[in-house]
Structure formats: structure tokens, C-alpha cells
């Protein structure tokens, strides 16, 4: 991200919520504080948002990103691009956000996590691989996984979300998927080595012209070609970067 910002100070950075990317945001904030990188012209693009949470709700992703990304980077809301999950016309809001991303010139770098079922953003299994930003219904498993952020009460987790579609995500110039822990190992293997199939939305990244997958050993434990991937990474030309 720092390298991109040095090349393109006005870059659009697509960010994801969750614990996995937090060290990335913290490291970027440290570079900003040290003066090593300038983010003043950058724009931060939201990946997805719950539908129905009131403005300012601490678990709305807009609020989470304000705390975890915008404030540490010293950016205001004028640098933020994201849909309003409390909008009266959710579908119109989704379509408007799709247009906003296009008018901003598209996402330059998109960070992604991956669900245990292979979902990316809130594109649940069997989502269209060409989908655009739209409303989606969460699976019960996703709601259970996210209940920890709502005091363990699944009833407090919204059923619907606005999410960038898989086709929207694939429009980003560079996509970086991050995963840690053994619980993500099967999803990572399906995404990287399995067939491209809607049942594993992350497998669509195999079609992307510049996709990078960063995982720890536990998350890589189901990869059949892990040794080859290590060899490729160890022998990447320095100019190639990620």
C-alpha cells in the first residue's frame, strides 16, 4: 500500500474489516506518522456494509473503518467512499455506490479476507461470479460467525448487507487476499487450487490479472502445491513485488 501511494498519491484503497488486516493498517499508520508515506490525497473504499443498523452504530462497518483505518491515518470522512446501510432504498444505494467507485477511477488495491465457506466481502456461496454491488442475504453461518461482535447474540446481527459484487471486486487493479489460521485452510485451498465455481466465491480470484494471496502456515496447510508456492515466492524477481 505504501509503495502504491508513493507512485499514485491519489490512489483508491479498498479495505476490509476483521482482525486479519489490522496489522496492515497499523503498519501503514506508523509509516504515515513517521513521514515515510503521505495518504492525504488517498481515498478509502468500503467493501460491504450491514443493512438496517442506525448511523453511528459501533458495529456498522463505516464506524469500524473510521476507528481502524481513517482516524489512525489522519483522514476525514471526505476521504471515505461507502454505501449507506440505513438508506431507505437499499438497491438504489447499492447502484449509487457502484457508480461512485467508477467515478473515482476504480479501486487500485483491494484487501480481502475470506470466510470459512470461501466467501469474499459478503458474497456468500453460489453468488454470481459477475455480480455487481447489491443487497445480499447472509447465511446463518456468517451471522453466527459475526455474532461475537454483537455480544454473542445472533438476533442482533443483521440479515441483509450491501456488498461489492464479485465482478466489482475483480475490477480492482490489484487484489490481495489475506488469511490466517487453520480454520481458513480448506477455504484457501478451494480458492487457490480448486475449480472456479460459485460455491467458493473466492475462487473467482483465479481469473484476476493481478491477485496476491498472503497466508500463514496454518491457513496454507491444505494446499497441495504449497512447496511450489514457497519456491515461487522465494525466487520472485525483486522488481516484481507483490
Automatic annotation (TrEMBL):
Cited Gene3D superfamilies: 3.40.50.1360
Organism: Streptomyces thermogriseus
Ranges of residues in domain Glucosamine/galactosamine-6-phosphate isomerase: 2-211
EC number: 3.5.99.6
Matches recorded under PANTHER family: GLUCOSAMINE-6-PHOSPHATE ISOMERASE
Database matches in SUPFAM superfamilies: NagB/RpiA/CoA transferase-like
The name this protein goes by in its record: Glucosamine-6-phosphate deaminase
Record key words, sorted: Carbohydrate metabolism, Hydrolase
